[in-house]
Amino acid sequence: MIPHDRHLVLVGLMGVGKSTVGRVLGERLGRRVVDSDAVIEARTGRTVREIFEADGEDAFRILETEALLDALAEHEPTVIAAAGGVVLRPRNREALRDSGARVVWLAADPSVLVERVRSGGHRPALDDDPAGTLRRMHETREALYREVADLIVSVDGRSVGEVVEAILR
Ligand code: S3P
3-state DSSP call for residue 117? Predict the structure, then answer.
């Protein structure tokens, strides 16, 4: 059960379906959906790719923390589709824990994700060697997703509807 007064946060690697699952969950729960990448792009008037390329990853991560902390501070409970790297900074993991939000890790076999993700767009990290990058990201982040998660839902072989049901159950 998702407490009605808590944010619901989706975390997981690029391509697990955080945005799509988030949108459906938002409809089902009658909540607004906050997508951290979209917040950053709206605030800066630049794309995630432009920020990565012009200012570097560290600058992007600072904006990401601001977007996450602001979303968690909102009074109205929302569904937050947090970008894949949100678990990297200890500050973010602390904020997730302290906020009392319910955090769901959408977990996937990284080799399956390669088929689902497209580079280009807002994922400059996947421009070269997407399979290797996803595998390395999985290795470095797995323990961090586990650390913040209240619930782990495997998306492998499941439709969006099935993932949503697993979260709501
Ligand atoms: C990133 C994930 C992307 C985007 C950026 C970096 C990451 O968001 O923030 O390309 O480091 O995992 P999605 O997880 O929404 O694709």
Answer: coil
pLDDT tier for residue 24 given thresholds of 50, 70 and 90: very high
Taking CA atoms, 64 is separated from 88, 89, 91, 110, 122, in Å, by 11, 10, 11, 23, 13
CATH assignment at residue 19: 3.40.50.300
Instruction: Examine residue 92 and state whether it is found in any structural domain, yes or no.
Output: yes
pLDDT higher than threshold 80 for residue 44: yes
Mutational test site, ligand 1, from 14, 88, 138, max ligand atoms within 8 Å of CB: 14
**Are the beta carbons of 144 and 90 closer than 8 angstroms?**
no
Does the pTM of the predicted model rise above 0.85?
A: yes
Residue 121 CA to ligand 1 center (angstroms) comes to 10
Residue 3 lies in a domain: no
Q: 140 is in which domain, residue-wise?
A: 8-168
